Amino acid sequence: MTDYSRSFGGAALGARLRRASERIDRDGTRVYAAQGIEFEQRWYGILRQLVEHDRPMAVGEIAAILRITHASVSEASRSMEKSGLVESATAPEDGRRRLLRLTAAGQALAAELTPLWNAFSDAAVELNAEAGDLVDLLDRLDDALDRRSMFDRILSKISLDPKTADDE
């Protein structure tokens, strides 16, 4: 059977990146389940930031560090709250900001997961080397997108007024 996305080469870049991400996340989820640990892949970045900084952090601050959307961090952190891993409170200096901090259960889980995360890191380094230093290529992709967004690249190929596109 033909690999539909692969057959499109660079034209299917987004689909291929999503597929690789889903495969890696799915395997990570399987590892946690095999170890009897209830943990969602989307929690990892938030938990790591809270562990590494060892202080309450704003949702927006975590989003900026991870370079993901505020909405993604907010949604994942609400799930983490329901699981008892983090608590949130309104920032005293700005009522619009929500500060997250690890609970005792979150700290215990992070400590329990550290050896497992080391195995994840070792496997990722191995996979990256086998793939020919994909991380370097991803850095170059990020740099190219920083120079010119996909949005701008697409608009240059079609007759669409950017102001009209932003309004939709």
Automatic annotation (TrEMBL):
GO terms for molecular function: DNA binding; DNA-binding transcription factor activity. PROSITE patterns: HTH_MARR_1 (PS01117), HTH_MARR_2 (PS50995). SUPFAM superfamilies: Winged helix' DNA-binding domain. Pfam families: MarR_2 (PF12802). CDD domains: HTH_ARSR (cd00090). Residues 10-143 form the HTH marR-type domain. The keyword DNA-binding applies. The keyword DNA-binding applies. This is MarR family transcriptional regulator. The lineage of its organism: Bacteria, Pseudomonadati, Pseudomonadota, Alphaproteobacteria, Caulobacterales.
